[in-house]
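Homework help board

Subject: predicted structure for assignment chain

Our instructor gave us this sequence and asked us to write out the predicted structure in token form, then describe one feature. I got the tokens but I'm not sure how to describe them. Can anyone check?
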Amino acid sequence: MSASHASPERENETAVVLVDGSNVAHSIEGEPPHVANLIVIREKLREEGFEPIIVADAALRHQIDDPQRYERMIDDGMVRKRRLEPMLTTSYSHLPAS
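My token output:
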């Protein structure tokens, strides 16, 4: 479907972008992860019309340069902590061999 044929509902939707917060925070080599990196990427993506969902692993809270500010970002919903879910084991023996 081309943009000219998009429904009015779709035109009002915001494109969601999933951001790896741990990689963004660690983006300055040789330095600890920075909260400011998360803020900058979030603001830039929003300026460009995207709705960023920043997800970070649990270890980041122990490494980041400003843990209190980072925790406020989590509390405010700006960053989501990635939870490790138990892996589901599935047998694929019923599938034909390739």
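Reply (TA_rk): Your tokens look well-formed. For the description, you could write something like this. The two ends are 34 Å apart (CA to CA). That's the kind of observation they're looking for.
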